[in-house]
């Protein structure tokens, strides 16, 4: 029987931003295993800020499996961290999602590629041309010599893995990029963001490049990085209406602080009211308004207030499980009749 290399990956207990961890288990299967065929596994939680040394065992529970085309017979296995008694570990944000298979999420992950502490394409000790030509740009002076190669390889590996990328683009700052992932089911979308981040981090190792997910790595007139969360429920897609929309926005406004708390650290550095953002302490919505907290697409307003909405506040370092969990919690507070 062929031996499969199963890379079990999970989120550690670091705060406010968990790190990805992974280790390989070799197991024999007739063919590429299904999720149900994967055993739970364990790790030393005292090395990941998830347990004390005196009682260090944590459990890895597989929740999704993806083919890994960078290895022969390879798979990436997304895991939730559980306590030995079978309940979710306190760091397990995925387990807090009020699951809703009818909720669809599209995340737009922005990030910088950095080498020796500088975004790719920044000259040592100086600055490149100001922002303007980099967004969706082309050519060495705009993109540099290696960034696109990384971005293209990342896309190939993700598509091989079955990750539902919708697109990629160069972003407004030099060395800044974006990919979009859409999923039916909030957990499916959020799992795929974490796996895509894992693949990108690992790919960049061989280039001597790191991925900077911080939401505002550069001071001055340089864009920060977000992770806009586009969302819809079955009710929003099929029923909607202005009255329901107004109640939903009132609930988002009431829970503004709780949303910000779930949307990634240091967001005050990014949500300034400039660079296509609303201030961190204000809530607003607007049709096609990229300076609002929530952008209502034209298609939504024109279609009797039905469709999907874009929460522009989540940042690039945010945990998509925590973000989806908070959005679904607020939606659940609003009666649909
Ligand atoms: P922009 O950059 O203009 O905000 P993008 O095209 O980058 O727009 O992202 C819009 C995202 O909206 C897409 O990635 C897609 O995943 C998401 N989306 C589209 N339709 C729906 C829907 N019905 N429910 C949830 N998300 C959706
Ligand atoms: Mn050992
Ligand atoms: Mn986008
Ligand atoms: Mn963008
Ligand atoms: Mn967007």
TrEMBL record:
Family matches, as SMART domains: Gln-synt_C (SM01230)
Domain annotation GS beta-grasp: ranges: 4-86
TM spans (from-to): none
Compartments, record wording: Cytoplasm
PROSITE patterns from the UniProt entry: GLNA_1 (PS00180), GLNA_ATP (PS00181), GS_BETA_GRASP (PS51986), GS_CATALYTIC (PS51987)
EC class of the enzyme, as a word: ligase
Catalytic activity: L-glutamate + NH4(+) + ATP = L-glutamine + ADP + phosphate + H(+)
Listed GO MF terms: ATP binding; glutamine synthetase activity
Pfam family, one: Gln-synt_N
GO cellular component: cytoplasm
EC identifiers of the protein: 6.3.1.2
UniProt domain GS catalytic: residue ranges: 88-337
GO BP term, pick one: glutamine biosynthetic process
Keywords: ATP-binding, Cytoplasm, Ligase, Nucleotide-binding
Gene3D superfamilies per UniProt: Glutamine synthetase, N-terminal domain, Glutamine synthetase/guanido kinase, catalytic domain
Stated role: Catalyzes the ATP-dependent biosynthesis of glutamine from glutamate and ammonia.
Family: Belongs to the glutamine synthetase family.
Quaternary assembly: Homooctamer and homotetramer.
PANTHER family: GLUTAMINE SYNTHETASE, GLUTAMINE SYNTHETASE 2 CYTOPLASMIC
Name of the protein described by the UniProt record: Glutamine synthetase
Annotated organism of origin: Haloferula rosea
């Amino acid at each position: 029987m062929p031996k499969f290399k199963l890379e079990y990956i999970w989120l550690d207990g670091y705060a406010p931003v968990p790190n990805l961890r992974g280790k390989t288990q070799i197991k024999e299967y007739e063919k590429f295993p299904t999720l149900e065929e994967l055993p739970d596994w364990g790790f030393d939680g005292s090395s990941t800020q998830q347990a004390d040394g005196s009682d260090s065992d944590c459990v890895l529970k597989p929740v999704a499996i993806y083919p890994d085309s960078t290895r022969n017979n390879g798979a990436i296995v997304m895991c939730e961290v559980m306590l030995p008694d079978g309940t979710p570990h306190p760091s397990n944000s995925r387990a807090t999602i009020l699951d809703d298979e009818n909720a669809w999420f599209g995340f737009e992950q922005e990030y910088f590629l950095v080498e020796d502490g500088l975004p790719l394409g920044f000259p040592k000790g100086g600055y490149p041309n100001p922002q303007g030509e980099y967004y969706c740009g082309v050519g060495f002076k705009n993109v540099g010599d290696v960034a696109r190669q990384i971005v293209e390889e990342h896309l190939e590996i993700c598509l091989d893995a079955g990750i539902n990328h919708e697109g990629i683009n160069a972003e407004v700052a030099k060395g800044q990029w974006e990919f979009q992932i859409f999923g039916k089911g909030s957990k499916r979308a959020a799992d795929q963001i974490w796996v895509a981040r894992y693949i990108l981090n690992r790919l960049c190792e061989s280039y001597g490049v790191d991925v900077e997910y911080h939401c505002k790595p550069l001071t001055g007139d340089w864009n920060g990085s977000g992770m806009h969360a586009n969302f819809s429920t079955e009710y929003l897609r099929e029923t909607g209406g202005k009255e329901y929309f107004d109640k939903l926005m009132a609930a988002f406004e009431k829970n503004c602080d709780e949303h910000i708390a779930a949307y990634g650290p240091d967001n005050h550095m990014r949500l300034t009211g400039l660079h296509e953002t609303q201030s961190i302490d204000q809530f607003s919505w607007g049709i096609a308004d990229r300076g609002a907290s929530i952008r209502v697409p034209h298609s939504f307003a024109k279609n009797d207030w039905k469709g999907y909405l874009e929460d522009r506040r989540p940042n690039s370092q945010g945990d998509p499980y925590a973000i989806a969990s908070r959005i679904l919690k607020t939606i659940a507070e609003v009666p649909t009749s």
